[in-house]
Fold this protein.
Amino acid sequence: MSHFTTIKVQIKNGEILHQVLQDLGYQVDCNTEVRGYRGNTTEAEYVIRQNNGYDLGFRRTGENYELVADFWGAKINQQKFVNAISQNYAHKTLMATVQEQGFDVEEEETLADGTVRVVVGRWV
């Protein structure tokens, strides 16, 4: 019986996801198995190894990625983990898009509630 659970996340770009995981301080293995309960495994493109033997993985399903893990053994706060990755992914994606579109970041600040406010501009 598998104990793996999947959580759909709004992440499409694997390269940016990989950068975000590394920026958050995780050691990431690529294209390997996610370990879970009693040696059960499943495949994922990006895997965060944990010392307790319960890994966290991201695998592509269609156009998006999903988080896969045996959360009972992983012993992480799922919501906090997903929120941190989603916020950092959105910020990194925004910055890449801003640059691609020829805009400059004029101002960036983190508000008291954790919201990141970015002002961009472009001379025409």
Q: What stands out?
A: Strands lie at 5-9, 28-35, 41-48, 56-61, 64-69, 104-110, 116-121.
